[in-house]
Design a protein that fits this description.
10 strands; two-stranded antiparallel sheet; alpha/beta; globular; about 40% helix; 8-stranded parallel barrel; about 15% strand; single chain
Length: about 325
C-alpha cells in the first residue's frame, strides 16, 4: 500500500489508516465506554489491517476511556521490532476521559495527557499527535507552545488538528509562523460523498500552506454502505441507533434517491457501495489518507476493493454529482 507524507512533517502515513475509535467504546462518548469492539476482535482487526498493508493506526486518549490506546499497546507488545518500527501511531487529546473529568488543550493538561497516552501505548514517543477539537477556552498560542515543547522533548514527531474549521486552522498556522512555533501539519476532519463541506473551506487552507488532510467518517456513519434503506427501520446496533448526531439529516428522500443511484454505480463496477465510496476518497487529490474504523476484521474487505479500483477525474465528478 502506498504512503504519503503529511504536510511538511517528514512523516508518511499509509494511504488508508486504521481508525481505532471503537475499541472498547464508541468514540469518546463516556456513555459507551465498555461497549463497542471487544478486545479479542480489536486484535483481529489490527492483525488484518497489518496484513493488508495498513501501517498507520489512529486513536485518541479518550477512545473507550483509554482502552483503545491500551489495546494497541498490548498488540504492539506481541510484535517484533520490525513491526513495531513500521507502525505509525497517531493519537489525540481534548475530550474527557470520564464523565465530569476535565477536557481541553491547556498546556498542563496536554503534558499530563501525553504522558498517560505514552504509558498506555507502551512507547516512548508517538509520530503524530493531534488536538482532537478546537478549544475556545485555551489561546491557540498557548496550545501550540505546549505542542512545541512535546516536539522538542522528542515525545511527538509532528502535530495536527482534528475537527477544526478553516478559520481556526488558518489562525493556528499563522500564529505558528508569527511566533516561530511548531505548526499543525495536517487536519483530520469528517469528509465523504455525503459530507463535502471542507472542499470549499478547509481544502483551500491546506493547499495554501501545504498541509495534509485525513478524512474520517468516509462511509458517513454507514449511510454509504447500503445499511439504511428507505422505509425500513435502522438495524439494531448501527450508528443511527447509538449515536445518530450528525447523520439524522440524511434521512430524506433526496438522500435515498442518491444512494439508490450510487448502488447501481457500485454494482456496475462489481464492488460494494462501501468499496466505491472509499475509492472515491482515495482518488481525491486533496485527501492524503482515509481513516476506516471497522467493527470486525471482515469489514476491511471494502478497502481491498477501493485500492484495486481506479477512478478517473470524470468518474469522481460523476459520482459526486449524484449527491448534489
Amino acid at each position: 500500500m502506498q504512503s504519503r507524507e503529511l504536510g511538511k512533517s517528514g512523516i508518511a502515513v499509509s494511504r488508508v489508516i486504521l481508525g481505532c475509535g471503537n475499541f472498547g467504546g464508541v468514540g469518546s462518548a463516556p456513555a459507551f465506554f465498555g461497549q463497542g469492539t471487544p478486545k479479542k476482535e480489536a486484535f483481529r482487526i489490527m492483525e488484518a489491517a497489518w496484513d493488508l498493508g495498513i501501517t498507520t493506526f489512529d486513536t485518541a486518549d479518550a477512545y473507550g476511556g483509554g482502552c483503545s490506546e491500551s489495546w494497541i499497546g498490548e498488540w504492539l507488545a506481541t510484535k517484533d521490532g520490525a513491526v513495531r518500527d513500521a507502525i505509525v501511531i497517531e493519537t489525540k487529546t481534548f475530550n474527557p476521559m470520564e464523565t465530569g473529568h476535565d477536557q481541553g488543550l491547556s498546556p498542563t493538561r496536554i503534558q499530563r495527557q501525553i504522558e498517560a497516552s505514552l504509558e498506555r501505548l507502551g512507547v516512548d514517543s508517538v509520530a503524530l499527535y493531534m488536538a482532537h477539537d478546537f478549544d475556545a477556552d485555551a489561546p491557540q498560542e498557548e496550545t501550540l507552545g505546549a505542542f512545541e515543547e512535546l516536539v522538542r522533548e522528542g515525545k511527538v514527531g509532528a502535530v495536527g488538528a482534528s475537527n477544526f474549521t478553516a478559520e481556526q486552522l488558518a489562525e493556528a498556522v499563522e500564529l505558528s509562523e508569527l511566533e516561530g512555533l511548531t505548526r499543525y501539519e495536517w487536519v483530520q476532519n469528517s469528509f465523504s460523498l455525503l459530507d463535502r463541506g471542507d472542499a470549499e473551506t478547509v481544502f483551500p487552507v491546506c493547499r495554501e500552506h501545504g498541509l495534509g488532510y485525513e478524512a474520517f467518517g468516509p462511509l458517513a456513519g454507514g449511510w454509504l454502505t447500503g445499511k439504511y434503506r428507505r422505509g425500513e427501520p435502522y438495524p439494531e446496533g448501527s450508528r443511527m441507533t447509538q449515536r445518530p448526531d450528525g447523520y439524522a439529516e440524511y434521512a430524506a428522500d433526496a438522500t435515498f434517491d442518491a444512494l439508490e443511484a450510487f448502488e447501481q454505480e457500485a454494482w456496475a463496477r462489481g464492488v460494494s457501495m462501501a468499496g466505491l465510496a472509499l475509492a472515491w476518497l482515495v482518488a481525491t487529490p486533496e485527501v492524503t489518507a482515509v481513516i476506516v474504523g471497522p467493527g470486525r476484521a471482515e469489514h476491511l474487505a471494502p478497502v481491498h476493493e477501493a485500492l484495486a479500483l481506479e477512478l478517473t477525474a470524470a468518474d469522481r465528478s460523476h459520482l459526486r454529482g449524484l449527491f448534489e
